[in-house]
Amino acid sequence: MGLRVGYVNVQGLSPRGWEVACGLLNTTFDLLFLAETWFVNHARWSRDRRFIAATLNLKQGQYQKGRYKGGIYLLGTAKARGSIHEEVKVDEHTITVTVRQESITAVYFPPSMTSPTLDRQLRNISHSIIILGDINTRFIDSTCSHQRSGPGERVRLFAEHLPITSHRRLQPTLEDWPPGSKIRPNSQLTVDHCYIRNSVRGSRLHLLDNASL
């Protein structure tokens, strides 16, 4: 596809975070998903030309420590926006955008999501060639996860869905770590997950230093 897609958890979208995110569109990404925006200054950001879509805020008025929960935004360059020929599909936890007849989905599955809801969400997005985001699930691997997997029911659901949908979990390699990073080969990273259809070749997962966000 030749498309650069990013996903960053901003934990509250500040004016500085917005500025940095828009800068990444000019240098690093064609499409950029911002997770956990908490809908901060939503009326302002949603009027920006780079703003494409946001997940539904179904719990307006329900605060968690003085803020709304969740909230994924999708931003895009002018060229990427011009390549979107179908209506962007959103619900409370996902955004699906179709570019050049291929669907890409960003997700935020909170720890409170029940197993039946997660199962339904996975079925709904199974057509996407790329699924990326924060699924609040830990997997054991040698590079970029945790020493323990869990929660068990979530691990089981993903294990069941992958063979059916022909997706594989894409992992960053050592050369994909940020330049100048202090990460060592024996380090373990906590990264958001990316699943890609087995038929897609030549894709790589690069890590991003999001300290400025």
Short description:
The chain has 213 residues and is α+β, with helices and mostly antiparallel strands.
How many DSSP H or I helices?
Answer: 5
What fraction of the residues are assigned to beta strands by DSSP?
15-25%
Helix content: 10-25%
Distance from N terminus to C terminus (CA atoms, Å) equals 28 Å
| Overall geometric form | globular
Estimated radius of gyration: 17 Å
Q: Strands of the biggest beta sheet: in what spatial order? A: 5-6-7-8-10-9
Mean pLDDT: 84
Low-confidence stretches: 181-190
How would a textbook summarize the main sheet? Answer: 6 strands, mixed
Given helix and strand content, the structural type is alpha+beta
Give the strand tally.
10
Order of helices and strands: EHEHEEHEEEHEHEE
SSE layout and pairing:
Elements: E1 5-9, H1 15-27, E2 31-35, H2 42-45, E3 51-54, E4 73-76, H3 78-82, E5 89-90, E6 94-99, E7 102-108, H4 115-124, E8 130-134, H5 152-165, E9 167-170, E10 193-197
Parallel strand pairs: 1-2, 7-8
Antiparallel strand pairs: 2-4, 3-4, 5-6, 6-7, 8-10, 9-10
Question: Can you characterise this structure?
Answer:
By secondary structure, the chain is an alpha+beta fold. It has helices spanning 15-27, 42-45, 78-82, 115-124, 152-165; strands at 5-9, 31-35, 51-54, 73-76, 89-90, 94-99, 102-108, 130-134, 167-170, 193-197. The chain has a six-stranded mixed beta sheet. It has a four-stranded mixed beta sheet with strand order 1-2-4-3. The radius of gyration is 17 Å and the shape is globular.
